[in-house]
Amino acid sequence: MAYPQLTDKPGAIETAARIAAGKMSPLEAVDAAIARIEHLDTHINAVVVCDFDRARDAAKEMGKSSPSDATPLFGVPMTIKESFDIAGLPTTWGHEAHRDNIATSDSAVVRELKAAGAIFLGKTNVPPDLADWQSNNPVYGRTNNPHDHERSPGGSSGGSAAAVASGMVSCEFGTDIGGSVRVPAHFCGVWGHKSSWGLVSKEGHDHPLLAGRGAHDGVLSIAGPLARNAADLSLLMRITSNRQLGERRVPVSQMRILGLLDHPDCATDDAVRGPLEAALDALRGAGARVDTASDLLPDLAAQHADYMRMLNVAMARGAPGRDGKRASATDWFDFLDLQYRNELAWAKLFETYDFVLAPPAPVLAVPHAEGRVFDGEIEINGGSVRGAAGLCWAGLATFPNLPSTVLPIGSTGDLPCGMQVMGPRWGDLSTIAAAEAIGQVLHS
Predict the structure, then answer these.
(1) Cα 49 to Cα 87: distance, rounded to the nearest angstrom
(2) Cα–Cα distance measured from residue 224 to residue 428, given in angstroms and rounded to the nearest whole number
(3) Distance CA 373, CA 384 (A)
(4) What pLDDT digit, counting tens, does each position of 254-264 carry?
(5) Selected catalytic residue, list 9, 81, 123, 202
(6) Most buried of the four, 27, 297, 365, 399, by CB within 10 Å?
(7) How far apart are CA 402 and CA 423, in angstroms?
(8) Cβ-count burial of 192 within 10 angstroms (0-12 exposed, 13-18 middle, 19+ buried)?
(9) Catalytic site residue 160?
């Protein structure tokens, strides 16, 4: 089955503009999206919690009023990752034991998007505990990559990316701690943004075991949007950001870029390297200064080791720490110190470079597998590599709390390839703008 290219369906801003101009009603927009889901999702299984009746009711009510400046998404249908609470819908995080965990209130992101006029059609698939580059669980089953049903759309926001890539919805919202927005965007050929840590509230994005009590917005993990274009990413970030963001637009001809293709912890597959090398060459041809090495770069092996230790402690809420023992408070403060020093090193680097470009993952969309990708092996250039090693590119922006925008840059065979554009902390709109400018060069 052939799936729409990114330009074949209107984006969120375009849909809102059509509604505002009277060319379609919110109900017509919602019904069209429902029809696409019903037609396409039999083969993909991305939208696993449907809320069509309430969406149609909301659209009918919205049709009685007019959009305003406060509702830039007026009438736009969308879905959201299953782990975000929507009142009246289940939040299971992929666990059969939590099938009947029904949210009593909306998460902060859902509230903000609804206030901006978005209409939620339902929720999209995830792996158990949001801890895999697949989206497969005992509650909802397996989500397939729209480009190849034998491969993963990524995880943990895999259902999110698959819904956008297949044309079911124009935009989505996911979360990312180990590449969970960026890798699905890369695997599925859409745009995605890992926000600066702390920029978007994750209230109402809590594991069911917390029983709705709320939790500290843990280190490393962020919420961020997926879409078909950069403009929609920017709008979604403006709607959900909890601080005013500046935007620095740098023409490609004036960009100072550090391009990274190699990581000491994991080789990069040629299917990823090829499109990235071509992208860097195109940017050089457009006048950008592109370096592929710098003494300013932090020790990537040390950074990755610190990231993985901190990630494991954060995911396990304290265990394991060092030497397989439960992390102590002292261990945790040591991790925070290491993270802070790493963040300072990256800030120094961005005094010389505007942006850092890198793969979102060392491979393209991986074949479906039983068990977690991270517990098995991935194939790189004909050899087998530990699946967990693939997290090296995710940690590049995650550990120092940096924003990173993924844009599609091409494909190898039938599988899409993306590239992440990293910038200084709080420079979220700037990395999105840079990705847009880079995309214009690559796709012209």
Answers:
(1) 13
(2) 10
(3) 12
(4) 999 999 999 99
(5) 81
(6) 365
(7) 7
(8) buried
(9) no
CA distance 289 to 377: 36
Edge to edge, the sheet with strand 77-81 lists: 47-50, 119-124, 77-81
Residue with tokens 């600066």: 196
Q: pTM for this structure?
A: 0.97
180 is known as an active-site residue: yes
In this structure, what token pair is assigned to residue 165? 């890539």
- Report which secondary-structure segment, H or E, holds 261: none
Query: Which residue is catalytic, options 83, 157, 180, 430?
Result: 180
Q: Quick one: which of 203, 241, 211, 209 has its CA closest to 225? A: 241
242: closest CA among 432, 73, 426? 426
Place of tokens 């666990």: 95
pLDDT tens digit sequence for 390-426:
999 999 999 999 999 999 999 999 999 999 999 999 9
Distances from the Cα of 68 to the Cα of 11, 117, 373, angstroms: 19, 9, 45
Extract the tokens encoding 150.
């034998």
77-123 pLDDT tens trace: 999 999 999 999 999 999 999 999 999 999 999 999 999 999 999 99
Alpha carbons 360 and 186: distance in angstroms, whole number? 7
The active-site residue out of 107, 152, 156, 170 is 156
